[in-house]
């Protein structure tokens, strides 16, 4: 059987194939960057129009009540909860991933300051997403209480670095560069055995791979909605806190939206109970509405089905790249083991940036991360098996013909 025929048959047999129609994908484009910015749900345009013309334009300020704007963050959290193994009332969609990290990190340190004040180390990974490390650096400098950041270089180094000085461990469930995925339950148990708290960044997990926060007994989790959840560029992020810790302390960004009696206009802060205390200022309503469009698509499938397709897509991509492009200096960075793989595949190449630019010019959109890493994201909701074949064919053409040497592909743009 020819490869093209095999790919067509895989798409015909795909139980998720119809979900592709939920997205406004440009004709002639193979989009393999949903791990960075998800595609636009078709419903988002009508939803934005409704919010702007009707809810804002006609309802004006009354829409805080009549359109239930005031509860949208937590109602969206309830829709998202099932995708990350949380219960109703435990998740809020609000602020950015970075801001939510600051809130949860500070709250965790407050909890540990009461339990074990000698614990002053925050442990993370050298290859974590840099923004996470920047926030830790900023918070430790702000607190001026002897806190310090320590980094592990590889996941297997974690056990050796855990000791009675570690207060909290921040890990990204699926690494943004390599696509390596932690065993959340086993890793959280290891962290807890050493007396530390576990904070998980789910930016490259939510909506693509199985996440079971409560079953894993995690303590805190944050993540974005604009990748696999398709909430739109810069869409609000989400925050989850274990019910056992949620009311143990309050987060430092004590804005009025997290107040127990918001419209009492009291001069002193009184945190709301539950996840609502992790809200801060007035919410970005139109952006939240776009998040809802993305989340509603997930109601038409489930995570196990998405995971099966994700693994099938990434397996196929790895197989085709390695078999068809073997004569080029490509190095697979992503784990082959399914239990350790997220939903994107990364290959190293000495000229990775230029190759990605040449691919984009051919209508195959991936992205690049230093050093030398070409990332290709496989979003099960809308990526087809034929997309995989088209992408590998384009990659082979760019490599064989050295199209990437064109000067226009050498110039670094502001966003890679």
How far apart, in Å, are the first and last alpha carbons?
38 Å
- The total of beta strands comes to 13
Mean pLDDT: 97
Question: Residue ranges: pLDDT <50 for 5 or more in a row?
Answer: none
In angstroms, what is the radius of gyration?
Answer: 22 Å
Main sheet: strand order? 2-8-7-6-5-3-4
| Class derived from helix and strand content | alpha/beta
Give the number of helices.
14
In words, what does this structure look like?
Strands 2-8-7-6-5-3-4 form a seven-stranded mixed beta sheet. The chain has a four-stranded antiparallel beta sheet with strand order 9-10-13-12, with helices on one face. The two termini are 38 Å apart. The chain has helices at residues 3-12, 43-56, 63-66, 72-81, 97-115, 130-143, 158-161, 184-193, 213-216, 243-246, 285-298, 303-324, 352-361, 385-400; strands spanning 30-31, 91-93, 121-125, 148-152, 166-172, 197-201, 220-223, 238-241, 331-332, 344-348, 364-365, 367-369, 373-377. It is α/β, with parallel strands linked by helices and 416 residues long. The protein is built from 14 helices and 13 strands. The longest helix is centred in the C-terminal third of the chain and has 22 residues, at 303-324. The model has no long low-confidence stretch (mean pLDDT 97). Helix 2 (43-56) packs antiparallel against helix 11, helix 4 runs parallel beside helix 11 (285-298) and helix 5 packs across helix 6.
């Amino acid at each position: 059987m020819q490869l093209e025929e095999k790919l067509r048959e895989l798409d015909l047999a795909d139980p998720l194939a119809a979900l592709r129609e939920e997205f406004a994908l440009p004709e002639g484009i193979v989009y393999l960057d949903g791990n960075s910015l998800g595609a636009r749900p078709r419903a988002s345009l009508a939803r934005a129009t409704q919010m702007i013309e009707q809810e804002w334009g006609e309802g004006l300020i009354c829409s805080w009540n009549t359109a239930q704007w005031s509860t949208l963050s937590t109602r969206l959290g309830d829709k998202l909860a099932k995708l990350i193994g949380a219960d109703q009332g435990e998740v809020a969609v609000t602020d950015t991933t970075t801001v939510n990290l600051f809130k949860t990190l500070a709250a965790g340190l407050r909890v540990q300051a009461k339990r074990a004040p000698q614990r002053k180390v925050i442990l993370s990974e050298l290859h974590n997403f840099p923004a996470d490390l920047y926030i830790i650096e900023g918070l430790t400098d702000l607190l001026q209480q002897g806190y310090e950041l320590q980094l592990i270089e590889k996941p297997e180094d974690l056990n050796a670095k855990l000791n009675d000085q570690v207060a909290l461990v921040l890990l990204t469930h699926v690494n943004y560069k390599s696509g390596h995925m932690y065993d959340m339950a086993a890793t959280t148990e290891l962290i807890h055995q050493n007396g530390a708290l576990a904070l998980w960044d789910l930016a490259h997990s939510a909506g693509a791979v199985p996440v079971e926060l409560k079953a894993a007994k995690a303590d805190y989790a944050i993540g974005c909605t604009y990748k696999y959840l398709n909430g739109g560029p810069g869409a609000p992020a989400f925050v989850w806190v274990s019910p056992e810790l949620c009311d143990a302390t309050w987060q430092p960004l004590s804005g009025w939206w997290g107040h127990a009696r918001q419209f009492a206009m009291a001069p002193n802060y009184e945190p709301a109970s539950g996840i609502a205390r992790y809200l801060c200022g007035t919410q970005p309503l139109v952006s939240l509405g776009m998040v809802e469009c993305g989340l509603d698509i997930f109601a038409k499938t489930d995570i196990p089905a998405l995971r099966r397709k994700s693994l099938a897509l990434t397996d196929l991509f790895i197989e085709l790249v390695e078999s068809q492009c073997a004569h080029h200096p490509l190095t697979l960075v992503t784990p082959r083991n399914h239990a350790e793989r997220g939903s994107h595949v990364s290959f190293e190449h000495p000229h990775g940036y230029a190759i990605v630019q040449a691919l984009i010019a051919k209508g195959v959109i991936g992205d690049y991360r230093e050093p030398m890493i070409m990332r290709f994201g496989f979003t099960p909701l809308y990526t087809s098996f034929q997309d995989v074949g088209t992408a590998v064919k384009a990659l082979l053409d760019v490599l064989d013909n050295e199209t990437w040497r064109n000067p226009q592909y050498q110039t670094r743009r502001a966003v890679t």
